[in-house]
Amino acid sequence: MLPEGFGEVAEKLRRSTVQVLSGHRSSSGSGSGIIWDANGTVITNAHVAREAHVQVELWDGRSLSGEVVARDAYADLVKLRLRTSNLPVPPWRESTSLRTGELAIAVGNPLGFVGAMTTGVVHGTGPIRGLGRRPWVHAAIRLAPGNSGGPLADASGRVIGVNTMVVAGGLALAIPSERVVRFLERGSRPSLGIAIRPVKEGLLVLQVNPNSAAEQASLMIGDLLVGLTSDDLSEAIENAAGSVLKLQFRRGGRRIRREVSVVVPWPRREAA
Question: In this structure, are residues 153 and 13 in contact, taking their beta carbons and an 8 Å threshold?
Fold first, then answer.
């Protein structure tokens, strides 16, 4: 049974959720985002906002340009800045206070349905086997493409995480709210400009961004980084900021290991 006042809670969450469009509208990728402060800060996933500028559509139909001012590819978080103010902001709650079985609410734009809401229950918090040491909020809740970057909230409408992915068995994973706060305090991390997926033998390169450090070092989609986990890679990149990082990889199914030297850039600072 849904708690009293649930309709009002859901409506406030919808008004604090935006649609994020990357690329031209006719061929754009679509995701969601969360208004984090009234003066135009929006949080979404790094895999949703891949470009320096995206279009952000608000609940009232306004379409605004969003500028990426901070990015952490490892945490899969991006901070967008909108040139506007007086936006509706949801409260947030630390995920460490969650209890298994609590009501969870997800709002987003799945499959083109703007402002869609689903409910489920919190399954737990903490790392997931095969995804490294990062903590997650796990929820038994239905997500679909387009939900990424949107809020996962409790029964009172407090944001407890940023919806990110669905794993085997249909369990939804969200980045904990306190990690979002830490990201906002810290800003961008150094990045190689790649998207990776953990596999049995290492990290499979799924994407290489144009003009990135990885492209300049001639890394390619399909290369297999060996001898490290995603957590190991994140730590190595951070420690190597401003210098050279040497990585071992395999290419084209061959068992021969190669070595590549990647110049790790300093993280881009947010404009004042």
Answer: yes
pLDDT tens sequence across 34-92: 999 999 999 999 889 988 899 999 999 999 999 999 988 888 999 999 999 999 999 99
pLDDT tens-digit map of 195-226: 888 888 899 998 898 889 999 999 999 999 99
Looking at CATH, the fold of the domain delimited by 95-184 is given as Thrombin, subunit H (2.40.10)
Domains 95-184 and 194-263 share a fold: no
The encoded tokens of residue 207 equal: 């994407």
Q: Which residues are catalytic?
A: 47, 76, 148
Helix (H, G, I), strand (E, B) or coil at 225: strand
Domains of the chain by residue range: 6-88, 95-184, 194-263
User: pTM value?
Assistant: 0.82
* 194-263: CATH class: mainly beta
Contacts of 148 (CB under 8 A, 6+ apart): 31, 32, 44, 45, 47, 48, 108, 163, 164, 165
Instruction: Note the CATH number of domain 6-88.
Output: 2.40.10.10
